[in-house]
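Researcher: For the record, we're logging two predictions in this thread. I'll number them. Prediction 1 follows.
Model: Prediction 1, sequence and structure:
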Amino acid sequence: MITVYSPKKSNRLKYVIDLVFKQILKTEYQIVDDENQLDKVSINYSSKKIPGVYQIIPNDLLFTEELNENEIIHEFNKLDIVRFFLTKDDHGFDVFSACFYIVTRMEEYVDKNRDIHQRYSAKQSILYKLDVLEKPIVNIWCNNLLNKLNDFYNSNILSEAIFNQLDTIDIDNAYAYLHKGFFRTTAALVKSLILFKFNEFSQRIRVLMGKEKDPYDTYDYLFEHQETKQIRSYYFFLLGDYHKMDKNLFFKSEALQKLIIRINDKADIGIHPSYFSFLKLDHIGKELNRLKSIVHEKVVNSRNHYLRFSIPDTYQSLISLGVEKDFTMGYPDALGFRAGMCSPYTFFDLITNEETSLQIIPFAYMDGVLKDQMDLNVKQAIAKIEALRKEVKKVNGCFVGIWHNESLSNQGRWIGWRAVYESSFA
């Protein structure tokens, strides 16, 4: 049991102490406001010196409802990699305020700049600027805190966190050629001829005639791999209305509905709110209800298409619709840990200043970033994923990547990439 003493109380303090000790370290803790309740292994989270008690002097961040809009002073450190909110005490920095600042994504509330898709870019984040984005910095800080407490008190409190891995697949387009209807199919065939894409034209014809499997029909391969590796998997289905950025099959398509039901029997499923549904509660709700009506059960998982989401608006919408887990926390333009985290955690809303019921499952990498943003070859991609996996394993976190049924086709621009996918579970 770790006791945290603070003469002040706040929702922020309660949240971050639970985040550090329960959600990340999986160890018991209590918060007290009376010095007489200090136990053997304790943290004095106050400016008052208490002899024999490990002290962390608090920054005011956890005892206000305001956003920190000031520049974050930092220093690099061999053990903690980098430190924020520097202090002169037993720890050297206010680790609780630092964790809170990064995990709640406070900088995204303050910095209003967005890309052409209205997304917050990795390049705007402090972790990217300090070149530590590919380190699960919050998990590292928490593990180091536990080690320092054990050294200080000559104790042996252990974290019960264990490494695990999830497989997540986005179904933006269930089939490359099949079940598109007469007009879409005819238009695609004509377009292939006009652009002299004769191989594509020939393949489409072979698939439509049943002489070749649709290249995006990688589901048997996925099922076999997931069963062999005994990996829990999540599939996210795009069910929005047709749009230039949302090109899946019509949600009433019998083929798509059969596929969804088939996958639901083998894995966890979730909604993939469309590009067009961004910041539109009614559209997200409509798409969620479409998936519910297909599987005839509650849908509690979500990941936004194009990773297009806004904090806290998107999360507030998901909560109001009964979504329990969101898998969108990561960047569309870089690898690494957007919230400094590689463990599932609950979302804290800085507008309401309250912890919510929504669980965030952060991811470390996406296939498209490796190939399109970084232009890595197969060998380089395997090495990069392995490096990220090692970082997560060091802190006993949860390793999550994003793949698409399309990127596992092993055809066209994705030739050889099944080897990358398979290596991520080594």
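Researcher: Logged. Prediction 2.
Model: Prediction 2, sequence and structure:
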Amino acid sequence: YYQMFAKALSTMELEQFQDASGQQHDWRKELAGQLFQRQQSNGSWVNENSRWLEGDPNLATAYALMALKYCE
């Protein structure tokens, strides 16, 4: 989901967005922060929910890296 979120906002050329409470969000900074918090100690990512094979750290790490690419 993070990768698709990043791709969509990047395609829209949206730098920030406003949530329902009126707060502005720098989505690139916030997304990168969330991904770095979820990174495993060995450098990989893994989804605790293994649906769609996202419990495989190889696949989850690839998705995370693709999402981070949009955060540049």
